[in-house]
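Notebook entry, cofactor series.
This is the third protein in the set we're modelling with a bound small molecule. For this one the ligand is pyridoxal-5'-phosphate. I'm keeping the input format identical across the series so the outputs can be compared line by line later. Sequence and SMILES below, as received.
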Amino acid sequence: MATLNSSLPNSISPSADLRRRFKRKISSCLVSEKSQEKTSSPSISWKAKEIIEMEAKYLVGTYARAPVAIERGNGCRVYDADGREYLDMAAGIAVNSLGHCDPDLVKVLVEQGSNLWHVSNAYYSLPQVELAKRLVECSFSDRVFFTNSGTEANEAAIKFARKFQRHLIAGGEEPATEFISFSNSFHGRTIGSVALTSKEHYRIPFEPVMPGVTFLEYGDIEAAMKTIVSGKTAAVFVEPIQGEGGIYSATKDFLQALRTACDDNGALLIFDEVQCGLGRTGHLWAHEAYGIIPDIMTLAKPLAGGLPIGACLTTERVAEAMNLGDHGSTFAGSPLVCKVALKALGDNPHVKEVRGLGLIVGIELDVSATPLVNACRQSGLLVLTAGKGNVIRLVPPLIISEEELEYAAEVFKKCMPALDAASV
Ligand SMILES: Cc1ncc(COP(=O)(O)O)c(C=O)c1O
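Returned structure with ligand:
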């Protein structure tokens, strides 16, 4: 886990550079009405129209879709039914983190797909336990429960929190059962997760949803300190960076106050990193930038690069409240999805942590970095060691281009097996 970086601003701003670049580009794109006419939405072919009409006829009308039928994807580009190309900055709503049809993921998918897809959780399977081990090793957590989506990961977190509170109390006492959530939050569409979702439009039509949820203003420390109450609050659900609600980053003070209030009152702190986790902020976990650790973290979207998966990561203290039969899923943690997730998380189990900012990056390994440094040099890439010789140090010239960085990453990736060869 990355250490607390005291130089970070109070409100974490994931990409000032991206924002600046966009501001510049957007203002240079402010064009006259006349030129806008020329670029107005292109006509749709019969093929696309047919797909849109079939959707309208056969599907339950819950999605406000753009009039585009996507047919294929490659890297960061997708192509519609008329062959039109799009640069995909939506990535299936923060899902396709390695782009579309990444060749390494396709290879694993085909290999595992020819071997075993699904066995149910009545049996053991190696990819599932390997993926859990990998997640535990690179996070605060001790144990993992797999699900098929983000909303299910949050449902698991709700049940874990309720069971944990029940487990804590002596006979005769009432357990804490209530939850705290925040303005602009989004935690999913199932009846527990939607109860924690602030937007009334998503929640009110389905009431009564799970009772006992109090919504507070995101960032209001005083309200949180008053409302997190011993014997009443089971858990606090918070996105360190809110996605669906409008991209709002928590302040460090706010998350720290939640941590303290939860600790003081026996409540669990649950970070929903379904959208902001798994590398999107430049840290593996969004909460690393704040240096504040939750009791439970939920994940989903990019975990298997686009296949359906979710996960609820938790400490031993919480996990030990769950007994056989307390929760389960038919599909969750299938060998096919877990094998692809292992690949999407990155090949090399020797990488313990990636630290740093901008162009000062350290990659900590669980073995000596020397074989990798040597292999890189033999392939024309100069990198350094640091720490106790187990950290790769990348400090390139500040004028390095994106293409050169891409090239360096490729060479680096190809040389990684040198670590395996040296550790046998
Ligand atoms: C923060 C957060 N939590 C939960 C969810 C629900 O995930 P899913 O759509 O996979 O159920 C989402 C989906 O956008 C999300 O952004």
